[in-house]
């Protein structure tokens, strides 16, 4: 497989994100800040009150901080649904790349500017502010990769749902974002949930997206169990996504720009 | 007498203004009725899908606030708000989003940066309806856009019942007023951000999504534990605190930072003024530069 076309696609996606210079990234940075600050304040208040959540304050803060900075990777969101809605998806079939691989390259390229110029520098500098962002185990990295891979599969499945619902991209997006933010563990660690919900949330597929790698990052997860679960969901959902996407092609309808 | 007053230029001007306002309201009302009819026709034409959409929106709104409520439940409240006060905050935030979806979700009238960035303002300029009237009415979805509204009303009602608030006509008026001011602040924030799309159509096309998501996410957090500086920031420079946290405390009878219930109205007015000035400047830039976002076959570049 030649990598050059994918790298070119990724590079174009990266440039598209920065055609106004790095200032175009400011809204995303603001969004990340808006997500991190209130939660970190809540954790501080709650844990200083003496609540026992099975995590130290430091672990909670690192979990929230890294979860927000790596949100693109932990809650993978491609443009596939909206491209189907606005007609751009059709043009992908005219290009000499497989459609889904093209979407992956485009999405990953779009992540690059924020990751390189904001998230990674902040994660590296965080120890200076007292936040130990070093992974508790190196299994965090394969777990992150499996989470990203699963994220693409789940995104493609949601895209199939959009196609099935005749292009209702916004509705599917709203449901998806609400479900992912609650059930992926990207915003609130499962251990904080009441009624013993953490035991169920750990097992469902969305939990393998963010909750899994972040639990390894802060050292609260068992690597063998976490990685096996992630691998299992990947093996189950990737073939399903490929099959359903192939079947969805005949159903695609578009409103155009 | 009538002749005298008609010769008075001040009276003639005020009559013209009143007539203009009346005709504006008539036109907006007629268009609201038209959009309502079309939306209702969609319900009748494709009932199954329409009901799925309404239910899905309600579910997604509830799911969106569940996380914070579960934290409040686990820790018996957050900051100086108990469990059901947090639920009131979440219900109010959901209601505000519901009202926004009800009036501004159709055709991206709320997400104006998309229309500007995609070069769709030109489509609006050839319509035989003033731009302002289009922006007010185009997004009206009273049937398909009411899922969030329903969810917000239910959650708010449950919270009010558990807190034991006395629901008087004055309280309801205060509630409606705060909701209106919050809506004005939210739309003002989105329109202010949309100005960027006049200058950078591709990069800023989705800027309203970032602003909306940030504001909505922040609005569903009890901000009482933030420092005074943090609270001030979230009531002014990033006014997400005005969307739900501030009004909820007003409705509970303890407005924060010694401010009064009138503050959101004052802020919304200043924001509208600032947005108007910058929008006009961006508009003039757009008139000179235009937009080239479409290929010859009509697809977006």
Helix content of chain A: 55-70%
Low-confidence stretches of chain B: none
Q: How much of the polypeptide of chain A forms β-strand, as a percent range? A: under 5%
Q: Write down the domain tally of chain A.
A: 1
* Coarse morphology of chain A: globular
3D shape of chain B? globular
Structural class of the secondary elements of chain A?
Answer: mainly alpha
What Rg of chain B is obtained from the alpha carbons, in whole angstroms? 21 Å
How many DSSP helices of chain B? 14
Uncertain runs of chain A are: none
Order of SSEs of chain A: HHHHHHHHHHHH
Give the integer mean of the pLDDT values of chain B: 86
What's the helix count of chain A?
Answer: 12
* Mean pLDDT score of chain A: 86
Specify which chain pair forms the largest interface: A-B, 48 and 49 residues
Compressed to H and E, one letter per element, the order of chain B equals HHHHHHHHHHHHHH
**Percent helix among the residues of chain B?**
over 70%
Strand content of chain B is under 5%
Distance between the termini of chain A: 33 Å
Give an overview of the whole structure.
The complex is a heterodimer of chains A (about 260) and B (about 300). Helix content of chain A is about 65%, strand content about 0%. Chain A has about 260 residues and is an all-alpha fold. Chain A has one domain (about 5-250). In chain A, helix 8 packs antiparallel against helix 9 and helix 8 packs parallel to helix 12. The two termini of chain A are about 35 Å apart. By secondary structure, chain B is an all-alpha fold. Chain B has one domain (about 30-290). Chain B is built from 14 helices and no strands. Chain B has helices spanning about 1-5, 10-45, 45-75, 85-105, 110-115, 120-125, 130-135, 145-165, 170-195, 195-200, 205-220, 230-235, 245-250, 265-290. In chain B, helix 3 (about 45-75) packs parallel to helix 8 (about 145-165), helix 4 (about 85-105) packs across helix 13 and helix 9 (about 170-195) runs antiparallel to helix 11 (about 205-220). Chain B is globular, with a radius of gyration of 21 Å. In chain B, about 40% of the residues are buried. At the A-B interface, helix 2, helix 6 and helix 9 of A face helix 3 and helix 11 of B.
């Amino acid at each position: 497989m030649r990598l050059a076309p994918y790298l070119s696609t990724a590079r174009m996606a990266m440039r598209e994100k920065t055609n106004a210079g790095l200032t175009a990234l400011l809204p995303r940075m603001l969004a990340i800040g808006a997500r991190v600050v209130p939660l970190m304040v809540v954790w501080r208040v709650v844990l200083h009150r003496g609540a026992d959540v099975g995590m130290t304050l430091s672990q909670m803060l690192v979990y929230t901080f890294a979860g927000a900075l790596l949100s693109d990777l932990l809650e993978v969101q491609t443009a596939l649904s909206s491209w189907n809605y606005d007609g751009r998806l059709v043009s992908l079939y005219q290009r000499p790349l497989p459609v889904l691989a093209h979407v992956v390259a485009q999405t990953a390229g779009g992540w690059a500017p924020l990751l390189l110029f904001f998230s990674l520098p902040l994660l590296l500098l965080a120890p200076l502010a007292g936040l130990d962002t070093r992974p508790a185990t190196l299994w965090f990295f394969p777990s992150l990769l499996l989470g990203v891979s699963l994220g693409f599969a789940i995104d493609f499945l949601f895209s199939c749902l959009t196609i099935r619902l005749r292009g209702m991209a916004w509705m599917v997006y709203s449901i998806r974002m609400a479900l992912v933010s609650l059930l992926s563990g990207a915003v609130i660690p499962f251990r904080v949930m009441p009624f013993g919900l953490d035991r169920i949330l750990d097992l469902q597929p969305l939990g393998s997206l963010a909750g899994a790698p972040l639990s390894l990052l802060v050292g609260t997860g068992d690597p063998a169990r976490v990685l096996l679960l992630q691998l299992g969901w990947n093996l189950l959902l990737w073939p399903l996504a490929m099959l359903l996407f192939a079947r969805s092609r005949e159903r695609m309808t578009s409103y155009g720009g | 007498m009538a002749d005298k007053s008609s010769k008075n230029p001040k009276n003639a001007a005020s009559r013209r203004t009143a007539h203009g306002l009346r005709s504006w309201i008539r036109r907006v009302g007629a268009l609201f009725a038209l959009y309502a009819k079309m939306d209702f026709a969609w319900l009748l034409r494709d009932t199954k899908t329409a009901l799925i959409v309404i239910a899905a929106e309600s579910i997604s709104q509830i799911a969106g606030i569940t996380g914070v409520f579960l934290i409040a439940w686990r820790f018996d409240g957050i900051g100086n708000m108990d469990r059901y006060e947090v639920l009131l905050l979440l219900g109010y935030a959901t209601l505000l989003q519901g009202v926004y979806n009800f009036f501004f979700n159709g055709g991206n009238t709320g997400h104006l940066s998309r229309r500007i960035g995609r070069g769709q303002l030109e489509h609006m300029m050839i319509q035989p309806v003033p731009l302002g009237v289009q922006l007010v009415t185009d997004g009206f979805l009273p049937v398909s856009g009411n899922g969030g509204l329903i969810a917000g009303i239910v959650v708010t009602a449950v919270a009010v019942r558990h807190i034991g608030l006395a629901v008087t006509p004055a309280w309801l008026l205060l509630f409606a007023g705060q909701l209106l001011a919050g809506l004005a602040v939210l739309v003002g924030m989105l329109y202010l951000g949309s100005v960027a799309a006049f200058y950078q159509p591709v990069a800023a096309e989705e800027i309203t999504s970032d602003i909306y998501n940030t504001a909505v996410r922040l609005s569903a957090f009890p901000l009482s534990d933030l420092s005074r500086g943090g609270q001030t920031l979230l009531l002014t420079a990033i006014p997400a605190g005005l969307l739900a946290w501030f009004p909820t405390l007003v409705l509970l009878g303890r407005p924060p930072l010694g401010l009064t219930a009138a503050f959101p109205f004052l802020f919304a007015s200043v924001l509208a003024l600032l947005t108007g000035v910058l929008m006009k400047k961006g508009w003039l830039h757009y008139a000179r530069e235009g937009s080239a976002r479409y290929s010859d076959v009509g697809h977006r570049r």
